[in-house]
Amino acid sequence: MKINIQLYLCFILVFVVNYAFSQNVHVDDFDNGSIANFPIDWDKRGDQAMKEYLVAKDTTGNKNLCVSFLNSNIFILKQLKVDLVEYPYLNWSWRANDLPTDGDESVKKYCDAAACIAIVLKLLKFRPRSIKYTWSTTLDIEVGTKSPYAFWPSRSDIIVLESGNDELGNW
Q1: Is the dihedral of CA 119, 96, 48, 25 positive or negative?
Q2: For residue range 122-143, what is the model confidence (pLDDT) as tens digits?
Q3: Alpha-carbon distance 134 to 15, whole Å?
Q4: Burial 120-150 (b: 16+ CB within 10 A, else e)
Q5: pTM metric for this prediction
Q6: Partners of 91 in the beta sheet?
Q7: Which of 28, 33, 66, 133 is 20 to 30 Å from 56 by CA-CA measure?
Q8: Which pLDDT score, from 0 to 100, does residue 161 have?
């Protein structure tokens, strides 16, 4: 069963999808991108994304996606066709240096995160479903909530994988 997936990348630095035991579907490690340029083969929502999402090199020499903005809901995406039965696992690395003040993904007024990855499953045209993995300011790790922006018949589940200041600056 092939499913269209759109990967929305919000404030994430390195993202690689790793499915099954020895097989990989490589999404991006940003090695082919030029430093200080928008990543190759990614789509954007709004022209501001071209300035906000840039390929960078960290202190170890590895390329990553660097994002810096305040009060913005800009995101980028990459569309893939992946058999989720054959490849059911995701792996990625992320690092955040700051957290949004009072960020709480369960409340529309405070819905902001230091980093997130959203997997959009386009099962039906008018009923998209998505799962968003997030680094929250206030919600506890492993908390699950619904997006305050999703409305019926759409659905967006949010799962907190990192929370608070303890891991800031670490991959």
Answers
A1: negative
A2: 666 667 788 889 999 999 999 8
A3: 13
A4: beeeeeeebbbbbbbbbbbbeeebebebbeb
A5: 0.78
A6: 16
A7: 133
A8: 95
